[in-house]
Amino acid sequence: MGINAGVWLVGANGMLGQQLAAGLVGENLPFFASDREVDICDPRALADFARNKRIGWIVNCAAYTAVDRAEDEPDAAMAVNAGGVENLASLAARLRAKLIHFSSDYVFAGDRPEPYREDDAPRPLSRYGVSKWQGERRLAAAGGRYFLFRISWLYGVHGANFVHTMLRVFAEKEKARVVDDQFGSPTYAALLAANIARLVAVDSERFGVYHYCDAGVISWFDFAVAVQELALQAGLLDRAIPIEAIPTSQFPTRAARPLRAVLATDKVRRELDFQVRPWRANLEDFFREKARRGGPEEPPGAPA
Ligand SMILES: NC(=O)c1ccc[n+]([C@@H]2O[C@H](COP(=O)([O-])OP(=O)(O)OC[C@H]3O[C@@H](n4cnc5c(N)ncnc54)[C@H](OP(=O)(O)O)[C@@H]3O)[C@@H](O)[C@H]2O)c1
């Protein structure tokens, strides 16, 4: 089985968007790409872009991802993460295109030990989380056929993310301080993108809400320790620096973050046959990919 209409990759220049572009190429799926120049907050710009194209799938990687900044400009976050998603969802419904959208573990409060399942009730702690949750609701209300993937701690070789930030800290500082009381699971963008591209390639109709992340639950401190260890092995760092484990109370951020928002991935493995790998195996892949590309990529800004 294969798809007989084109794919539109929205937010193609972002961390996940760039990875998805590679994933679609890997599946030999031609696609139209857009980013800022086709503002998802502008329904007319979206309709103009879609005109005279046969679009069977829309994959939305565009989002407002500045979690802390969203506390000061909630309207901007809401415009993109809720309004923009609503515009895309209505257009997809009109075009009868299937829509793939991404949300976040930050829609959950993270105040319980068990992993979150797809039908657990969101209770976001931050303005960013509220905007992503609103986007989910508007997506559902638009009446189209969609896949919604909630993911957590996204990182990859493109753009700003925790791993790139830590690599810079390890290279430039004498000591690092990382919180050890926030737990979750990283999501390696390359494997997520490969899974998504496969879903499009088989023209899946198993619509719904899914949770996806790498296997294993760790703290940001555990993640940082592994990043330094593997970066040393890969020859990306020439010395180790001490990493101090600190509580969240010693690292205040503008936006509150869930302390334990672990996503259960049973459904995505069972229903969509997605490959889910241990976080450390994926981090090793990340460093192989880094080595192949030749050295650290300087990310443009602060991580989401
Ligand atoms: N990063 C994480 O840890 C994480 C965790 C869970 C879920 N997610 C979700 O995963 C998805 C992908 O995240 P990401 O980290 O890849 O995001 P990203 O790197 O910030 O990329 C988002 C892209 O969308 C563009 N964009 C922003 N506003 C737009 C608009 N109005 N119209 C068109 N394009 C616009 C951005 O342009 P500019 O760069 O110019 O703004 C950027 O190129 C998002 O839905 C995000 O909420 C991310």
Walk me through what this model shows:
The protein has 304 residues and is α/β, with parallel strands linked by helices. The chain has a domain at 6-160 and 186-215 and 262-277: Rossmann fold. 38% of the residues lie in helices and 16% in strands. The chain contains nine helices and twelve strands. Helix 1 crosses helix 6, helix 3 (74-95) packs parallel to helix 4 (127-141) and helix 7 packs across helix 9 (279-293). The longest helix is centred in the first third of the chain and has 22 residues, at 74-95. It is globular and about 55 Å long. 45% of the residues are buried. The structure holds NADP nicotinamide-adenine-dinucleotide phosphate. NADP nicotinamide-adenine-dinucleotide phosphate (NAP) is lined by residues 11, 13-17, 35-36, 39-41, 61-65, 80, 84, 102, 104, 132, 151-154, 159, 304.
Question: What is shown here, in short?
Answer:
With 304 residues, this protein is an alpha/beta fold. It has helices at residues 15-26, 43-50, 74-95, 127-141, 162-172, 189-201, 220-233, 266-272, 279-293, and strands at residues 6-10, 31-34, 55-60, 98-104, 146-151, 154-155, 176-179, 183-184, 187-188, 208-211, 218-219, 243-246. The protein contains nine helices and twelve strands.
